[in-house]
Amino acid sequence: MGIMNLGYVILEMQDPAKWSKFAQDILGFGEADSFGEIGTKYLRMDNAPFRYMVRKGNKDRFLAGGYEISSKSDFENQIELFEGSGIDVYRGTKAEADCRAVEAFVSVKDPSGNTVEIFYGRAPDKSFLPGHGIRKFITGAMGLGHMVLPAPENETTISFYEDLMGFGVSDDLTLPAFAPEMPEQRIYFMHSDNPRHHTLGLYNFPNPTGVIHLMAEMNSMDEVGHCLDRVKAAGLHIFASLGRHANDEMISFYFFAPGGIGFEVGYDGKQIENWDIYEPTKSVIGDIWGHEYDFPVVG
């Protein structure tokens, strides 16, 4: 597999400075030096140049995830796979690559319309220590965390990531439908070439923000608890209380970040050291305990 991890996320916000302040005040991220894109805030979690790129725009939404690929040759092979399957590939310019602190990148659309970027050659690491006494985020070779994307074109989107990008299945979770006339919920969890249980989840319903949730994993339960206190003090809506998942066994809670972006903060996620002998699971429950859901009523 050439895809190593989720290297960066790109968001669009009407007020990038507000999102940057939230990320520092609540999550313990740090603001990075600019990589040249005017009006954009770059946010750090670890020694990577940045993990979140927050652009200024007319909407609050998720734009893209950038996956790190292991080498230039694997990068070119991935492009050939896309083009051989009739997928339109946008090759980023040198200036655009510089704004991402990478050697080169391309972007494509998956069958559900999500923008996928792949890159190689990340800029050299620089030392970074998170705020709020957080010792570290669980990142490094496992990337910034995971994300769950809307994938209403479910089967073709799964095939895109499995057959063209080489992701493997970790767990296929099905949950009851919201209403009798609706299909059951499905989240298809997928891993890349690192021990994290899942780097990507695909949810079979759309979402107006372009993302179901993003996840940052902390180093201790106390770090998660202190973050939960900061979220409560800031008045941000918690839509899932503290709980432990059944598939990756992570203890976490969920809340809405500015712009309505779903965000999970967790600890103790399962790691798989040898994917060759791993048996994918089929879950029918999301949680071992906790995670009481409280979604706001709209309209």
Could you explain the architecture of this structure?
A 9-stranded mixed beta sheet has the order 10-11-12-9-13-16-15-14-17. An 8-stranded mixed beta sheet has the order 2-3-4-1-5-8-7-6. The longest helix is centred in the first third of the chain and has 13 residues, at 72-84. The chain has 5 helices and 17 strands. It is of the alpha+beta class and 299 residues long. The protein is globular and about 45 Å long. The relative contact order is 0.16.
Quick tags:
single chain; 299 residues; alpha+beta; 2,3-Dihydroxybiphenyl 1,2-Dioxygenase, domain 1; 2 domains; nine-stranded mixed sheet; eight-stranded mixed sheet; 18% helix; 35% strand
